[in-house]
Design a protein that fits this description.
The protein has helices at residues 3-48, 51-66, 69-79, 89-115, 119-126, 131-161, 173-184, 187-219. It has 224 residues and is mostly helical.
Length: 224
């Protein structure tokens, strides 16, 4: 590695890491929180088999899963202004990432709900609990333990996917690397540095996932 490239990487690393912490991580957290809310609501509607609402949910999942994320980003950020709806880049990215991942996570949560023995519902009714109480105190906690690994993987995938927010001018880590590269023309080194930072973030999340899985397994009476 030549001295010029080394100096560029040393100078750019704290800048890229700063954008990662200030923009990429918050974007991931907010988008995942929205996706989790959407997925639980959609899964519960399908689990309860509310006919009209279930069909709406199925259409939502069909459309989101059948269209590219990049196209969805462009439709919201570049397309909506043509009909008078203006959304800033960061909120637009949160909305798109949240609704996109929510469709996939909804299927994960639905499968986890259906894995809970139906006898749990009957037992809850027998002790005088309402449907909402049974879902909140009995079914959802068990379903969450089942779905946790898959949901954690969705979070890690979303963290990496936030790099696509650069296409709608969100100044996150990847876009900042592109801006720096426009001045110094060291694509291999800079994008490799960005990849390293993403790897660092994902490694931390993976370790947290493993720790949480052990805690949940212990709580559920399984082996850690």
């Amino acid at each position: 590695m030549n001295e010029r490239l080394w100096d560029i990487l040393v100078d750019s690393f704290p800048k890229l890491l700063g954008y990662g912490i200030r923009v990429t991580v918050p974007l991931t957290i907010l988008s995942f929180a929205l996706a989790l809310v959407i997925s639980v609501i959609v899964a519960l509607i399908q689990y309860a088999d509310i006919r009209v609402l279930k069909q709406i949910c199925r259409v939502y999942i069909w459309v989101i899963r059948g269209t590219p994320l990049l196209v969805q980003l462009y439709l919201i950020f570049y397309g909506l202004p043509s009909v008078g709806i203006l959304i800033e880049a960061f909120p637009a990215a949160v909305l798109v990432f949240g609704f996109n991942e929510g469709a996939y996570m909804a299927e994960t949560v639905r499968g986890a709900l259906e894995s809970v023995n139906v006898g749990q519902l009957e037992a809850g009714y027998c002790v005088g609990m309402s449907y909402i109480q049974i879902m909140w105190h009995v079914v959802l906690p068990q379903a969450f333990r089942t779905a946790f690994p898959a949901l954690s993987n969705s979070l890690i995938s979303m963290l990496k996917g936030t790099s696509m927010a650069a296409t709608i001018t969100v100044m996150e880590m990847f876009r900042q690397a592109t801006v720096i590269n426009g001045r110094v023309y060291e694509s291999l080194g800079l994008y490799g540095e960005v990849a390293l930072i993403y790897l660092m973030f994902c490694t931390i999340l993976t370790q947290v996932q493993h720790w949480a899985e052990k805690k949940l397994a212990s709580y559920g009476g399984g082996k850690a």
